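Re: [ENG-882] Designed sequences occasionally contain unexpected residues at chain ends

Forwarding the minimal case from QA. Structure tokens:
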């Protein structure tokens, strides 16, 4: 894991000190709310429906046990005993008192964490594949580049006041677990025929009011050109991006309006025009960063673990959890553990302080002191020996963290919605809970198979409903909440935007509607087909007919 150097420490200390002074001035009345707003947003502090919300950055989703334990401490001391892990690999605290915010930032700084770049019109916290450094299909670990981008973007004077928020995602594997095609910039690692590493650069993706899949502007960008090329993209965007209309200010709108070819030519011209005197410096810095991400000292183990296989035979619940929640590790004798934060009837992404401490303990005991936050609002232990999996499972079970639904119908992504968010038009959490209860039966979930259900409480799409295999959007209709359903979305390498099926449903009708959709899928699927494959083969017609047959 990356460790702060002296500059990082000083930068965060100075920022927290500044914010303490700014907060004191706001509390005394020396600053109005309008004057304070841009200052608090630069430090991750939002004013929500009931309280302030603090969004803490977890760069590229990587945490140590010590850092997770500090997040638990913050939840217990300054919130209501829990935190909410987000689709940006961050954590939110929903019940923060303004006067406590500087103390929280100081507590974060103690463990090399902060709340910078989680809000405002800046380059947001860079996200990566949550299996980075462990995945069997990975070409190379993308997190050193994620850290380089964090450093580059934190204080860049040109990109501190962009037309809109700006999001970058990075993946080092052919199978996209970072949703790179629906980010403002997505970076996907490739190797050419000469064995050299380079990046596919994808620009103009995004969700929200106008969902779009990004376009490739470079098939293969040599790694040493990355920062220079990204600066060229950002300069073109910063020059032409709309500032008169926030809904049209995203780079996706610019790319769409002028066309991908025109945008690409503008970027290439800007890139050719500017000097690149820092390339050597950047390469040295990347090498320095990469040293912190050296693989753990893995033991030489057989691929087959007798104790693991015996435990599965003796314990059907453990066997099901192992089948659904483990990922293939690149090293024999190890597995990736996906911890579901989606218990039956639970709030997706929420974890109590006690649960965070359990996960911290497990990381330190069994996981090389490393945890990851996924953009599906789950937690990952990336490096666990197969011989230790039963002990990990038992500890998770005791902490109510052993839901065996990773990637299934119960693994629902949902934003906080109208229960917390001032921007929301409908509640998300009760709908997620009702669907979770509807599909609580493990046999039913296994029969349905791999499925992504995503719920957003407004058109801003923080629940990424557009790219759910089944997406649910909460809207306000004449003062009442109703929910629009989309099908066929995907955030993977085959990215697509879901199609609206038809009229929306009342909140209490949504779970039954989802059941109808899934029963239709089970009726029509061919052997071995997952939901998305069946939908793409058949299109929306049979689902519409089933859903609105009695309408």
């Amino acid at each position: 894991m990356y460790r702060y150097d002296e500059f990082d420490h000083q930068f965060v200390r100075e920022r927290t000190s500044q914010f303490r002074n700014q907060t004191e001035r706001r509390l005394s009345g020396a600053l109005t709310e309008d004057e304070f707003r841009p200052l608090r947003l630069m430090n991750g502090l939002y004013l929500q429906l009931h309280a302030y919300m603090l969004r803490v950055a977890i760069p590229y989703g990587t945490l140590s046990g010590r850092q997770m334990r500090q997040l638990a401490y913050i939840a217990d001391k300054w919130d209501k005993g829990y935190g909410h892990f987000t689709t940006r690999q961050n954590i939110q605290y929903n019940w923060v008192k303004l006067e406590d915010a500087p103390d929280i930032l100081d507590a974060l700084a103690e463990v090399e964490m902060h709340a910078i770049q989680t809000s405002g019109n800046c380059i947001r916290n860079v996200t990566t594949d949550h299996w980075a450094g462990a995945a069997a299909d990975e070409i190379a670990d993308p997190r050193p580049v994620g850290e380089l981008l964090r450093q580059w973007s934190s204080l860049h004077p040109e990109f501190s006041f962009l037309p809109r928020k700006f999001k970058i995602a990075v993946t080092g594997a052919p199978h996209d677990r970072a949703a790179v095609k629906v980010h403002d910039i997505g970076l996907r690692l490739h190797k050419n025929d000469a064995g050299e590493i380079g990046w596919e650069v994808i620009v103009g993706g995004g969700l929200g009011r106008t969902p779009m899949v990004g376009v490739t502007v470079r098939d293969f960008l040599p790694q040493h050109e990355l920062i220079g090329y990204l600066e060229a993209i950002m300069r073109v965007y910063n020059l032409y991006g709309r500032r008169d209309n926030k809904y049209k200010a995203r780079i996706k709108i610019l790319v769409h309006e002028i066309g991908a070819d025109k945008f690409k030519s503008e970027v290439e011209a800007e890139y050719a025009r500017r000097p690149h005197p820092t390339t050597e410096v950047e390469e040295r810095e990347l090498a320095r960063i990469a040293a912190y991400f050296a693989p753990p000292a893995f033991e030489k183990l057989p691929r087959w673990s007798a104790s693991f296989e015996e435990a599965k035979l003796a314990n059907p619940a453990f066997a099901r959890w192992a089948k659904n929640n483990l990922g293939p590790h690149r090293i024999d004798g190890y597995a990736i553990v996906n911890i579901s934060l989606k218990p039956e009837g639970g709030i997706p992404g929420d974890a109590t302080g006690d649960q965070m401490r359990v996960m911290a303990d497990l990381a330190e005991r069994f996981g090389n002191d490393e945890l990851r936050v996924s953009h599906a609002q789950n937690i990952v232990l990336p490096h666990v020996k197969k011989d230790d999996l039963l002990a990990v499972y038992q500890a998770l079970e005791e902490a109510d963290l052993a839901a065996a639904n990773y990637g299934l119908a119960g693994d629902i992504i949902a934003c906080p919605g109208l229960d917390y968010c001032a921007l929301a038009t409908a509640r998300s959490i009760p709908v997620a809970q009702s669907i979770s209860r509807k599909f609580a039966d493990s046999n039913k979930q296994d029969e349905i198979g791999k499925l992504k259900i995503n719920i957003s409480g407004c058109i801003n799409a923080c629940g990424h409903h557009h790219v759910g295999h089944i997406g649910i959007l909460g809207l306000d209709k004449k003062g009442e909440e109703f929910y629009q359903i989309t099908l066929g979305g995907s955030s993977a390498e085959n990215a697509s935007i879901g199609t609206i099926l038809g009229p929306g449903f009342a909140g209490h009708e949504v779970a039954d509607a989802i059941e109808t959709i899934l029963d239709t899928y089970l009726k029509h699927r061919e052997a071995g087909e997952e939901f998305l494959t069946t939908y793409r083969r058949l299109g929306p017609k049979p689902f519409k007919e089933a859903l609105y047959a009695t309408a």
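QA comment: On inspection the terminal residues look reasonable. The domain at 306-398 is CATH 3.90.480.20 (Sulfite Reductase Hemoprotein; domain 2). Proposing we downgrade this to a documentation issue.
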